[in-house]
Amino acid sequence: KAQRKPKGNADIGKRLYFVYNKFKEAGYFGQSKQKEYSFLYDWYVLGGIANDIGEGYSGSIGKEKYQQVKNWITAYEKYKNNLTD
Question: For residue range 53-84, what is the model confidence (pLDDT) as tens digits?
Fold first, then answer.
C-alpha cells in the first residue's frame, strides 16, 4: 500500500516524535516530560512553526506547551498506526 505523507498535526508531530526519541536514546530525556516537551515547543517557536506563548516550562505555560506537543506527537502516532492496518 502506498505511503501517504502525514498532514496537519501528524506532519508537525512527525519531527517531534523523531527528535524526542533521539534525545531519549542519547540519555538527555527521560526525567520530566513537561520540561522536555516545553523544550521541543520552544524549538518549534525558533523554527517559526509554533506560536510563542511565553518563557518557561512550569505553570500554565508549561502545561500548554506540554499539551500542544503531546497532541502533535499523538496525531503522528495515530497516523503511523493507521499505516500498519
Answer: 999 999 999 999 999 999 999 999 999 998 86
- By CB neighbour count within 10 A (0-12 exposed, 13-18 middle, 19+ buried), where does 12 fall? buried
Residue-wise over 28-54: b if at least 16 C-beta within 10 A, else e? ebeeeebbbbbbbbbebeeeeebeeee
Measured between alpha carbons, how far is 63 from 41 in angstroms, rounded to an integer?
11
Of 42, 48, 47, 31, the closest CA to residue 66 belongs to 42
